[in-house]
From TrEMBL:
Residues 6-207 form the Phosphoribosyltransferase domain. GO terms for cellular component: cytoplasm. This is Uracil phosphoribosyltransferase. Catalyzes the conversion of uracil and 5-phospho-alpha-D-ribose 1-diphosphate (PRPP) to UMP and diphosphate. 5-phospho-alpha-D-ribose 1-diphosphate binds at residues 78, 103, 130-138, 199. Transmembrane segments: none annotated. It comes from Shewanella maritima. Uracil binds at residues 193, 198-200. Pathway: Pyrimidine metabolism; UMP biosynthesis via salvage pathway; UMP from uracil: step 1/1. Binds 1 Mg(2+) ion per subunit. The magnesium is bound as Mg-PRPP. Belongs to the UPRTase family. Its cofactor is Mg(2+). Keywords: Allosteric enzyme, Glycosyltransferase, GTP-binding, Magnesium, Nucleotide-binding, Transferase.
Length: 208
């Protein structure tokens, strides 16, 4: 599996700010969008361009445009919604496929409760967004679903990942690409990432 831990100073700085215990909902949300945007920049670096001729101010000129890439952004509810605008900043015409999965607090197993994928998902690059990759269960279940509907090209953008989740993802789906702002130390006994961000969904939505 292609795993890219993006070590750009802007990303490291912003993720550091997100780790503050008393960060406000507003600030956490802003930073989730900003880091989502920076991860999108990295994750799209392999998109091919083609030359097209346009009318420039001084006559016809050749410019580059992205070659026939159709994208669907896949936020995993709820917390994934907090990164979605960061992707759409760069790919405003992307279609959105929503997947609702929560993690059972006792068993840590993913519990699917909603999905609405675009109809031609098999023709699209899926960019899955979720701030946290802990055990990996939620992301693996999302990719299982996308593949079962014919999706062949999948990139996951994650703010903070646990090594345990990266390993589980690699075993389940070695053909996908993972872009993350940080691979942290470990999971605690409750399945939370250390040092991590705490409960990203609660921080984005202001719930406790
Ligand atoms: O890798 P895993 O062990 O599956 O854990 C990660 C999942 O847990 C969080 O969602 P949560 O279940 O808290 O739902 P929420 O986004 O609705 O808060 C997070 O946003 C991931 O989706
Ligand atoms: O650390 C974690 C693990 C799962 N979900 C979160 O929001 N945070
Ligand atoms: Mg949550």
């Amino acid at each position: 599996m292609k795993v890219v831990e993006v070590k750009h100073p802007l990303i490291r700085h912003k993720v550091g700010l997100m780790r503050e215990a008393d960060i406000s909902t507003k600030r956490f949300r802003e930073l989730a969008t900003e880091v989502g945007s920076l991860l999108t920049y990295e994750a799209t670096a392999d998109f091919e361009t083609e030359k097209v001729t346009i009318d420039g101010w001084n006559g016809p000129i050749e410019v580059e445009k992205i070659k026939g890439k159709k994208v669907t952004v896949v936020p995993i509810l709820r917390a994934g919604l907090g990164m979605m605008d960061g992707v759409l900043e760069h790919i405003p015409s992307a279609k959105i496929s929503v997947v609702g999965i929560y993690r059972d607090e006792e068993t840590l197993e993913p519990v699917p409760y909603f999905d609405k994928l675009v109809s031609n998902v098999e023709e699209r690059v899926a960019i899955v967004v979720d701030p946290m990759l802990a055990t990996g269960g939620s992301l693996i279940a999302t990719i299982d679903l996308l593949k079962s509907r014919g999706c062949k090209s999948i990139k996951a953008l994650i703010l903070v990942a646990a090594p345990e989740g990266v390993k589980a993802l690699e075993e389940a789906h070695p053909d996908i690409e993972l872009y993350t702002a940080s691979i942290d130390e470990c999971l605690n006994e409750n399945g939370y990432i250390l040092p991590g961000l705490g409960d990203a969904g609660d921080k984005i939505f202001g719930t406790k």
